[in-house]
Structure formats: C-alpha cells, structure tokens
Specification:
The chain has 127 residues and is an alpha+beta fold. It has 3 helices and 7 strands.
Length: 127
Amino acid sequence: MTFDEEQLRGLERSRLRALSEPDLDLARQLHAAQYELITPTGTALSGEQYLGSIATGRLVYRVFEPVSDIAVRGGAGWALLRYQARIIIEEGDHVADFVCWHLDSYELIHGRWQAVWSQATKTSSPA
C-alpha cells in the first residue's frame, strides 16, 4: 500500500493535538506498541514511559504545533515526516519554550498508520 502525504500530515497534526489536549485514547491509537522517542535533551523514552508521563501530568504540553511545512517521504508501508515545531512544555515546576526539528517515522501496522520513532532536536527559543 502506498502512502498519502496529506493523510499523514493530518495524522501528525492529530497526534500533536492528542498529546497536548491530552486525548490519551487517540494518542495510544496513533503510537505503535514499540514506539520510542528521543527527546531534545537526548533522553530515550519508550511509548509507555512517554504516554505514561503525559497521563500522570508529569509532562504537560501547553503548545505543540508545527511552525514549518511538514515534509513527507516514504514508500509502501513506511513514511518519514520532518518539520519544525514550537513546544511549550511543563515538567513539574519547570516550563520550557523552544523550537525544535522533528523527525517522525510511521509504519502501516495492521492497516493503520502509527508513529514508531520520533526524534526532536532543539534549535532555538522563541524571541
């Protein structure tokens, strides 16, 4: 099965909304069981760790939105999405506001596109 760029861009925007609202049911549907995240600080988190910290409120996204076009490349059953995003995140008493590059890997698993890997690289703080 080939991929539809607009469908994947829409899924990524839905994933970001699900993480920031949070809508954990939708977030779990959009993340594969084997999902892994490399954070802007270089920390590796499993999907369970990542979504668990959002579920408990240890990690709160105030803003998580693309600030550039979402570029898509892929083939049958896989796709890569790359874009810049603004993030305002709360972890305990610490609030951070920054822009980072995101690279997200999606795979078609049991007929559904799901994020399997994400990596974020901090680029700057908003002016």
